[in-house]
Structures are given as structure tokens and as C-alpha cells.
Amino acid sequence: MSNMTSTTFTSLSQHVLQHILQHVDQALVVVSAGDLVILELNQKSCELLGRTRDELLGQALSNIECALQDLFFWDDISANPPLSGQRIAESEWLTADGVALPIEKRVSAFQDGETHCWLIQAEDLTARRHIVQEQIQLASQLQSSLEATAEGILSVDLHGKVVNLNRRFSTMWGLSDDLIVTRDEAAMMAHVQTCLCDADSFTARLRYLEENPESESEDHLSLLDGRHFISVSKPEYLRDRLVGRVFSVRDISAMKKAENELVDALALAEQAVQDKSQMLDALKLSESRLRRLINSSMIGIFQGDMSGQLTLANDVLLDLLGVERHELLSKQVQWLQLTSPAYHQAHQAALKELQEHGHAEPFEAELSRSDGSKVPVMVGLAQLEGSRFEWVGFVLDLTAQKNADRVKAEFISVVSHELRTPLTSIRGALGLLEHGAAGNLSPKIQHLIQIAHRNSQRLGSLVNDLLDMEKLVSGKMEFKSEVIDLILLTQQAIESTSNYAAALEVSYRFQEPTQAARVQGDPQRVMQVFANLLSNAAKFSPKSAFVEVRLIKEQSLWRVEVEDRGAGIPLEFRDKIFSKFAQADGSSTRQQGGTGLGLNIAKSFVEKMGGEIGFESEVGKGSLFWFSLPSSTN
To answer: Is the dihedral of CA 69, 74, 79, 83 positive or negative?
Structure first.
């Protein structure tokens, strides 16, 4: 192919062509008109494509062009070749590393004798598109700012064409959709004049502005419906060149009403100045009151952007962190720098929720003070109104609450331990009396003994749950890690719970897997999880029903499923099912007993052993609770 290239250019004006290729700043490629084969190119083209000249010479142009519209472009230019000038189109060239590079190509005919070629002048559009994108983004931001202002804005060019207007302007003047679509300044101003009490004065003002395009104006407009506007117009410049005019209209009806009520004798100009001063003072007073309110709050308040950088903070938060305001702002502190690494994931999840919903559910975190101490806090985030990129945060110091929780846990622990010994004795004594240790009792006394025995058993379960919860919270509960035969442990759990289920006229049905099931964990804690799920399933199953128990292998885990055919879990209760003291029916008349701690304890046990726990439920059809544990490698 390179020999053919040399032959092809033997008859061309080599000197002229080489001069063009070497002295043009942009990429140049010469292709044959018939088969679009690359005959010559300059160094700029090689740099643009990331390939050497030898690699590209003789290649088909289609090997570097990767835009679909190129097929139609070359078909059209072959059928209608430019006799003079250039044909311009956008395309994409494929670089050596596989990147599609946007370009603008200018194609002109090049002919020497009977040899007909296309000379392609290519310009990289990457920077230009980036600038266009930035301009679009800037225009969007400007339009958002325009819509956010409390004033009606109208921008026109020197030819009487409306360049832009915000919704506030169209609402203030009651512009129809047809007027907005036409973008005709004269038509809009004619409509405005129909709304005015003194249309002639406004018409004269517009005529003066047409004759003096660099003048500024400020007019008080009285409307037929009783409203009062202030209209300010200024010339608009672009790089010191006059390009149009901007009208800013503010509704001062409330101000005018107050003005008339306060002083009828004062001139309009003096009253306007006085009202402006009063408004400014009121704004300063309101700002001062708001600042005092924020700084006197018990809650730390701060503002940040989506990158996590803090921009504002109140005195409460600064005191909580032990830093000065100038330190916080001058260092450009990131929120994640103030929180312990363990809580970074929760913050990132909150930011994602913030972007999707405009607010995030409160979450607990731990702040690091300047002296190195840690402060437990509750954090809430909300998107700043009118901004997609800024948010405001609220920080509540949980130190007192955590101390109270610790005191409460210690109290519960002490009480529970003090109750366990006498309760064991009471339960044992009642059990002996119930089984005739004191001889035959009257039916009435026997019934009372049975009720007392059952209640003592329930109280014992509550004490045990409280003790387990206290150990989990304080981190005192120990977990073994050993290989467990899950099939055998499941059978033992079913056997130990079968009497309880039989009393409720419910049976268990265990589907044993065909392979051995061994997991890593603490057998005693796994048995407690089983006992809770099996007893719950029996408790909420209808009479004569079966509770299905299954073991399922899932990659490196074993999943245990316990499924009942009960009433299911109400929708409003599902997000609290694993919470402490959770009861779907929390009333004093609820049909099923329990402390409401079992599922919370089970969840803690499973997660401590490296597993997961969850449920699926359909109201009226039943519930399926499951937990998974890592498989044993032994």
C-alpha cells in the first residue's frame, strides 16, 4: 500500500502539499477520493490519533472514523463533491488506546491532473465541548438564580426581542403563554400598559429609553388592581458593548400600604427611602435574633456541601468540638475529619439519601474533639432549600443520654442479678407444688399455683433476656468459635421446643439437606437463636399447622429458614421488628406473650458470629424468618 501511495503522489505538486502539511497548526489528512485510503498526513494528525505515520499510511479512513454519520457524509460528498470551498461536519476519530475523540472536519477537494483526493482538516472538539458544557451549566445556574429572586426580571436585546424572563415577571403581569412564546418586547409592554393606571407616563419612559439606550430608570407604577410596583431598568453590556436592557420589577404593595397608613403628608421619595431603611433595620434585627436563636440552641448546627466541606457552624457545635470559628473556616475542615472512621459509611449513606429525597434519617456518630476526646452525637441532615449542592446538619450531644443508658443498664443488670436467685427458688417451689410435692391441693389452689408457676417462668425469661441484653450492650458477652453440625443442632432445637409447640397444637417439619451442614459459631448462642425463632413461629401459627424448618446452602454460607402460616407481620411494624421491646401488639390485652427482646438479641447473636438475619412476610399468609452463618472450612 505504501508503494501505491508514492505512485499516486508522483504526479501531485509535492512541494505545495508538503508545505501545507508542515505549516498548518491543525491535523491534516489526505485520502484518495475513490476508496478513502490515507495517502498522506502531518505530525499533528499522528499526535491526535496516538499512532505513527507508518502505521496510518495506506489505512482505510474507516479504521479511524467511528461515527455512524460518517457513512452518510462520504456518500453525500461523493455524489455532490464541493467544487470550491469546504464541507464541514462533526465526526469521531478512534485513538490508539480506543478512545473516541470528537472532531470537526473540514473537507476540501484536492486535484492534480487526474488524481482526485480529499484534504481533511481536523480540529479536536474536546476543549470546545467542555467550554460549551460549562456555558450550559453556567446558564442553568444563572437561570436558577433568576428564578429564585423575589423580583420580576425581563431582559431584552437592542432589536426588541425578549432574551429572558423569569416566572415571577410573568406572574406579576399575568402574561399569557402566547405572549411568552412570541418573545416580542413591544407586545409584552403593550400588555403591561393595559394594567397601569397611568400608561402614558410609562409609554413616555419607554420612548425615552429607546432614544437614550445607555440611561437608567426607576419608576413607581400603580396598577388598576390596586398593586404598586417599582420598575428599575439598566443597560446591559457585554465586554463594554451595549447589547440590551434589563428590567427589574419589585412588588411594593405592602410597603405602599404601610406608607399610606403611617404618613400621608410625606413625599413619595422620602417615604421610599425611609421604608428601605426600616426594612434594612428589620432585616438586621431579624438576622441578629436568628443568630442568637441558633447560638442559644442546645443543638449544634452546621452547613456543608456535597463534598463534605463545612462552611458554617454555630457556637454550640464549636464548643462541642473545642475549636474556634476562625480555625474551623480557615482550615476548610471536612466533616469526615471530625468523625470517627467507624461512622464514615453511615455519613456517606446519609448523603446518598439526601440527594435522592432531600433529607436523611438521623444516625448516630462520634465526634473527635480537638483534645482527642470523643463525643457521642445524633446527626440529622437536610438539603438546603433552593440548593442541590449544600446541606444543613443538626448535631445533638448524646453524652448525657449515653450516661443515662449506662446507668440504666447497670441498674437493670443489678436488679436482674438480684432477681434471678430468689426467682429461681420461687419457680422451683411452685413447680414442686404444681406436681404434688405438698400433697393433693384443691382445684382452685392448684389452678392458682399453675398460673403463678407460668408467670414465674415468664418473669425468668424476661430476667434472662435483660441479662443477655446488658451483656451485649456492655460487651461482656463471650462468643465461642467452633465447628457446629447444623443438622444435629437443628434437630436438638426442634426437640427442645416441641413440648411448647405441642401445647399450642403446632408441629415442626424439618427438611434435612442431602449434604453435611457445618458452620462456624457458638453452639449455645445458635441454640438461643433457634429457640427464639421456633417458639415465635409456633406462637403465631394457627392450631394444627406445621412450622417448616429448612437448611439451604448458599455459596460460603448456610441459611436457616423458619416459616409459619400465621397472620403475618403488619406493614407498619416491619421496620421495628428487630428493635428492643418490639411488640406488633403492644397493648395490655395482646394475645401473645413475650418481652419483645428476643429478636433483638437473636440479631445481635447472629451478627456477632459473622452472619445475617432477616425476614419475609405477607399479611394473612405467614412469615419466614431466616439467619445465615459462615460455612466451616474444616
So the answer is: positive
